[in-house]
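cron nightly-structures :: item 1 of 1
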Amino acid sequence: MPNRQLSGRRIIVTGGASGMGEGLVRAFPALGARVVSMDFAEDAGRRIAAESGAAGFTLVDVTLEQSVEETVAEAVGLLGGLDVLIHAAGAAPSGPAAATSLDLWSHALAVNATGTFLMNRAVFPHLADRGGSILNFASAAGVKGHPGKAAYAAAKGAVLAWTRTVAAEWGAYGIRVNAIAPAIWTPMYDRTRSEMTAEELVAHDCLKARAIPLGGRLGDISEDFVPVLAFLASKEARFISGQTIAIDGGMLMVR
């Protein structure tokens, strides 16, 4: 019997044109969900949505209030309602703290923190009557900090604080809000690895082998990531809210 874990669930996935968001857009229709993918990359987003059998694709800039409000309304119309938002869109600019420019700081906060705020707020009216689930993408950087990515870490820290707050406020409406902190192997990570020298790659892999208790490497999108998100998006996760859920092989060990 096919797995219909998400049968009938109406789901918006932001960041659906690449990486983990793409993995969800490709996998969830086969689990019974109706999915609308959102992204700033229109060509890839439309192609992936069509290939996966998603209900549609909508273009969005998560940093702009009008874009978010209009795109969410369009997506809810395509889905005939809404049960789940998975907000995977984000950006991870690098730079040492002392050399971080105001532009880099503003960009990191706009995409990651403001984008989360705008998307969550936009879906609230569509979930408030029946309840539902919001899954925000955070990061271990927002918990522990991340040398070389100070602005990104600060933005993800804001995502975590926002997630806990709205989980407390919106529980009265039957809306559960959780944050995930993933460490998953993506095509972007492949590109990062391709830019390393042989010596840098050996050192990098040794570091990961020591840091990740399970397997010593980043997780697989299909095997390690999609099943967890499918559960969290399902009705079976109805009593889980306000949590930071690490999908990272045991690195963060959230307390």
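cron nightly-structures :: done
The two ends are 38 Å apart (CA to CA).
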